[in-house]
Amino acid sequence: MMFAGLATLGAALLSACSPVGALNLLVPKSGYDIREGLSYGPDPRHKLDVYVPHGLTGPAPVLLFFYGGAWSSGDRAQYLAFGQSFASKGIVTVVADYRLYPQVKYPAFAQDAARALAWVHGHARDHGGDPGRIFVSGHSAGAYNAVMLASEPKFIEEAGGKLDWIRGVIGIAGPYDALPFTEAQYIDMFHGANNKDSMPINHVDGKRPPMLLATGTADTTVLPRNTDRMAAKLKSHGSEVEVIKYSDVAHVGIILSLAPGFRGKTTLREDMVRFIQSH
Asked: What's the CA gap between 155 and 162, in Å, rounded?
């Protein structure tokens, strides 16, 4: 099974929420503005925060991020450290909420991600961003959302956009090839234990935007094989993909390595900035 320990994913990330929230107290508050609670759709969960770097001299690259939480938990307010990490590097950073289970099931997660992308493309200039340089990223379930957007163009097209709105994708420890599901919650969420349509890997049938896929070798929640198999599928269709594996890093540790006090644990921040700057 490609997604080992799926039943523990929500618990693992919920247990991380308290330290993530506490980390907000350590995040520098200078050097950027936060434009909070902007609506990208009609649902109360269709909200996002935009982190705008100070001192921009021209349109900046934009990074749209979706957090993890097993598609059933999470809140953008917990990701101040993520916003600061990249706003401090001159990147306009957007952290988006999306509807969660049991309110919705697949494909609503991907549809919300596409709606958020359409908002970012339409409003990037209002916040100092370049609509021609939008990068989409996520961790865990959020990485699934980001990679699904780039794997299946119909979601973006249904939101009024085009695949080439995405300059690049950064997936962090994502479940791209997680079948079969064995837990009742996920079988219900994705309409069956083996619904192939629900996995990003099964939507790659041609060249896709460049991707950076990162994972930790100690991740027992979302096995690194998800990353390996997704990368192989992308490469088989001529897509540019880079895989980075951080030694002895687990599922929550990889995203915490973007926060103050933990940034020495991996080079994820530097690798993401390099990927954005090179594309």
From this structure: 9
